[in-house]
Specification:
- The complex is a heterodimer of chains A (90) and B (263).
- Chain A is mainly α and 90 residues long.
- Chain A has helices at 3-16, 42-56, 65-71, 75-89.
- Chain A has a single domain, classed as ACP-like (Non-ribosomal Peptide Synthetase Peptidyl Carrier Protein, Chain A, Orthogonal Bundle).
- Chain A is globular, with a radius of gyration of 12 Å.
- In chain B, helix 2 (70-82) packs across helix 5.
- The longest helix of chain B has 15 residues, at 153-167.
- The chains are: A mainly alpha (90), B alpha+beta (263).
- The A-B interface holds A 17-21, 39, 43, 46-47, 50-51, 53-54 and B 62-63, 65-67, 115-120, 123.
Chain lengths: 90, 263
Amino acid sequence: MNEELKKELKEFLIKELSLEDVTVDDIKNDERLFNEGLGLDSIDALELGVAIQKKYGIKLKGKSDKEIKSYFSSIDSLAEFISRNLESNS
Amino acid sequence: MSDPVFCSFNNIPRVFCFLMVTFSIKSYFFWTPFSVVETENNSFVCDKSDDWKIPALEYIEKRNQRRLNKLSRLVLYSAIKCTTPEKRNYVTVLSSRNGEINNALRILQDISNDELVSPQMFVNSVYNMPFAYYSIFFGNNLPSSAIASSESSLGYGFLEAVLNLKRFPGYDVLLTCADFPLENELGVLNDKSCLPYSFSVIISNDNYGDNRISFDYEMLKDGNRRNDVPDAVKFYYSFLKQDKEIFISETSDSRFTWKKQSL
């Protein structure tokens, strides 16, 4: 998996969600982003969805809640979801 | 006390509104990043610069602060300083001339550019959001309101606060007046009185030391206004910090008078 994309996503999360006390090194690739783990919540999920659409042009519209939860569960899953969509769009 | 004055508004005769109430000031706190000096002719000068920041907030966990925008931080800063950890439960009133208009403009720009609107920015664009955060962080379950009235925002803020003292007897009112200058495209609309500040005051029906204040409000037809600094800044420096017995704020349509009363 693309380590550069994962690092970029961590920086993206920190910036977009104003995680002032968190550094890139604090976020583990397989750590849960929501609830336990990084402790993000539903407002963060909305913000993240909008930010991903703006930055990567990837729309979440039409995806089920279950699918979105699985994409957003960790940096690993988010990177996989984004790289897959970028490849299919190119 | 002035006599009621009759005037004509759109050819409809109206009685000018007049109100006079008294209250005590229990505590107050003022902050601006700049030094403000009152000159001999009762005008104010301020050394503005672009290099300033809002002080760190106490009593709110860092992770809970990340959603706060600048106005909320500014409001919470003086509100927290004005209250104590033992008592944060107050009827609250926010009065701000510009409010969240900087945020609202960014949302409108996103909409007009056919872009998605940030949910967080949308949440923060609600005018009474700063005291909504206060209520969440400190478990304040008392009523809250927010108003804006251009240059008269201090006066109308007090008016709302004293009306709430009457509406909710037994409760003190925390009034916070705070503002940011307009930003980006709106910046051209700033007049010289625009500066960042936050002023909080707790008013009460209780007799509290010698801090009893009478407050009068009159509607005017052709009032005069001198724009040097916001009214809240003058109120703090001229009336609360100094020995002046009276403070008058007059705009084109209203006159507010605060007088210190000895018990």
